[in-house]
Fold these 2 entries.
Entry 1:
Amino acid sequence: MNFDADAARAWVVAAAAAVTENADHLTQLDSAIGDADHGVNLKRGFTAVTAALDGFAADGPGAVLVKTGTTLISKVGGASGPLYGSAFRAIGKALDGPEADAAALGAALRDGLAAIRKLGAAAPGDKTMVDALDPAVEAFVAAAPDGLGPAAEAAAQAAEAGAKATAELQARKGRASYLGARSVGHQDPGATSTALILRALATVLD
Ligand code: ADP
Ligand code: MG
Ligand code: MG
């Protein structure tokens, strides 16, 4: 099976369900080191995305993901909206044609990471979503020769490990950075939602 428009749609719908189901947890994490709105922001954004994709005619996965990104940018006020929005848009722009194989999706995910890093200027270790996405993209690309399912599973596991590891880090970007050393000991909300979004991809491609 290749990554086509239906698979992209299924990924986004599964990601929407995951962030909605975990919205309270994400907001709790954000209440410790931010402004207690991450779950609310993503729930609102992904609810708008599923509505926008309903009946949206797409000729390939790229169109679905560009639409997802554009909608997140317009509907989410917090930092995470433009960051996730530009990532989905970059992933979608990288995917032309009716379907993508694992190598193409890996390259597209790398473009998504680059978009987040360009917009947010966060490096690995700054305690942001980059700490989940960067190892996930590397794991996906490394496992791409094994196919989409194994690559997505490797990416989800790497994202989960990266998100957990943010607890030990001091924040250097975003609102959590205002806390300085007091941000240590709390898992980053954005890294946590990135792990949910990549777990959703693994579930859909399994
Ligand atoms: P806000 O901080 O505006 O309330 P959210 O709560 O929705 O937005 O999202 C916060 C998350 O966004 C953080 O946990 C972090 O992962 C991510 N984030 C914040 N600033 C940056 C940045 N400059 N680069 C990458 N990720 C960032
Ligand atoms: Mg917040
Ligand atoms: Mg906010």
Entry 2:
Amino acid sequence: MPLPKAELHLHIEGTLEPELAFALAAGNGVELPYKDTEELRAAYLFEDLQSFLDVYYSLMAVLRTEDDFFELTDAYLARAAAQGVRHAEIFFDPQAHTSRGVPLATVIEGLARALDGGEERHGISTRLIMCFLRDESAESAMETLDAAKPYLHRIAAVGLDSAEVGNPPSKFREVYEAAAALGLRKVAHAGEEGPPAYIREALDILGVERIDHGLRCMEDPELVERLARERVALTVCPLSNVRLRVVDTLEQHPLARMMDAGLLCTVNSDDPAYFGGYVGDTFHAVHEALGLGEEKLRELARNSFVASFLEDDEERRGR
Ligand code: ADE
Ligand code: ZN
């Protein structure tokens, strides 16, 4: 029986397995620049975040209809359930779809139909987190927030992802203020490739509740102390960090040191179709590579529920 856990850092577009990508491409008449799934998988050798993002965005061309988004999401829920996931807070990237002419309604309705069946079909409760692409303009993020107004009942929080360096959290101050005014919760990727100062900005300027990744906080002892004191959750993604060369090897990953420093860490899969494992695989990998024993794995699983939006969401709904 896998340990029951919540997954808090998962890009739904990053669950697009090569087999499904080719099936959807055939159904939608989209030509992929790869001969077959083997050739596609062989392209998953990344140098850094940007080299991954290039493949990630280009493969999204196969996602066109509401059914495509349903199928993608339902397939993720089935895989996650098999690895002990009981609750998932799922990122999606609306701008990566609207910019290719796929309406926001198509995306959200496909995702929502799968999530609505999540409890019954897979035993997983869910939340949706709408991410802004930080390498697009703040105006584009604001337009995206505006366009999402008819779907706010479907969206728990906003997030910030894509190319981090050169796109600090402060760029999105106004859009985060507007999101908060609409009653949305806030998270942001920070300290993946970007410096510890971006983590501070995410906290102080955007007012986020959780930091996605955050591992570069380890370069700044004062920041580590603050994150530990304020119990700010970090959604750490060890397999992603190795594949995107944020760390050289899993054995060198700072997760164990982060936990020893008193940080509220969770373990997540980020983009599992690209990074070699879903969240249960990730738990197994950190056990093997970092020697995290049963007790530490239980702590990580417990943290995932503590850091989730489950706890106080119901009260907030009366807002
Ligand atoms: N989008 C999908 N995965 C991402 C990651 N690891 N960092 C930033 N943006 C992303
Ligand atoms: Zn991510």
